[in-house]
Every structure is written in structure tokens, then in C-alpha cells.
Amino acid sequence: MAFFYVQMPEGFKWGMCRYIFFIIGASAFLHIIVYWNEVYHGREDIPLGSMINGEDDSNGDMNKLMDQFDWTAGMIRDNYQHLGYACWVGLGIVYTAFALRLNLMADWVAKKFGPGEEVATEGEKSEGE
Fold first, then answer.
1. Considering Cα of 79, then 81, then 85, then 88, what sign does the dihedral take?
2. Which of 100, 70, 68, 65 is nearest to 83 (CA)?
3. Are 91 and 3 in contact (CB under 8 A)?
4. What is the CA radius of gyration of the chain?
5. What is the pLDDT of residue 77?
6. pLDDT at residue 128, as a whole number
7. What is the dihedral sign for C-alpha 71, 72, 78, 80?
8. Alpha-carbon distance 35 to 32, whole Å?
């Protein structure tokens, strides 16, 4: 979703694809945000187990956080809720930067001060001629 406005190389046809990727990414992002919000408020359980072996698998990610790293259920809920907020902020910053056209300023700064062809000063031009 963050790459919606980014220009891709010419070989990659990004024109229409970016809308498809945006819709897929936005629907997945919103589904996960809503799910962890439900977990945070206690309306859903923390997803224990793994996707392949089911809920009884003690090798799932949430199980590892609780068993190996001593996280509590409250810590998992809080951290995933705050991670969701951080993702919203990150997307907001990216879209604000593109809305304010700050990407063009960044391109100008990179071209002006970045590595590239050396620009000869007036004194160097006159000495070389």
C-alpha cells in the first residue's frame, strides 16, 4: 500500500497493477487491524497454534512468544494493537509526503547532492580550456 505512488522501473507495468495490489493490500491490512482490535478488546482469542497443524500445535508464533519469551496475553494484545497504530501512522506519513509532493523535493536533493557526475566549477572550466 505504501508503494502506490512510487514509480517503478520501465520494465514493470505498474499503471494498472498498483490498483490491484492496493486493493489486495488494503483488504488484508484492514482485516488484520480489525482482528487484532477484536483480540485487544477481548472479543476474540489470541490465535494459538499454527496454521498447518492447528490450535494444538505448540510451535505457533503466539505459543513461542508466551512459552519461550515469557510474554503474557496482555502483552501480546497491547503490542499488536500498538503495532497496528504504528502501521496507520506509517501509511499516513507516506501518503502525506506524496500529497505534499515531498517526493519531488527528495529527488531534487538526491540529484543535487548525491553521487553522480562531477560538475566542474567555473575556475576548473577556465583552467581546462
1. positive
2. 65
3. no
4. 24
5. 97
6. 52
7. positive
8. 5
Are the C-beta atoms of residues 65 and 112 closer than 8 Å to each other? no
Which residues are within 8 A (CB) of 78 and not within 5 positions of it... i.e. 6 or more apart?
40
Give dist(CA 105, CA 95) in Å, integer: 15
Count how many Cα atoms sit within 13 Å of the Cα of residue 14 in the half-sphere of its side chain.
11
Rounded to the nearest 5°, which phi and psi values hold at 55? Answer: -70, -25
Query: What predicted TM-score, i.e. pTM, was given to this entire model?
Result: 0.70
Q: Is 73 exposed, middle or buried (0-12, 13-18, 19+ CB in 10 A)?
A: middle
Mean pLDDT for back-to-back runs of 10 residues, the chain (129 residues): 75 78 94 97 94 89 94 96 96 85 73 65 52
Phi, psi of 58 (to 5 degrees): -85, 10
* Grid coordinates of 17: 497493477
What number of H helices and E strands is found in the chain? 5, 0
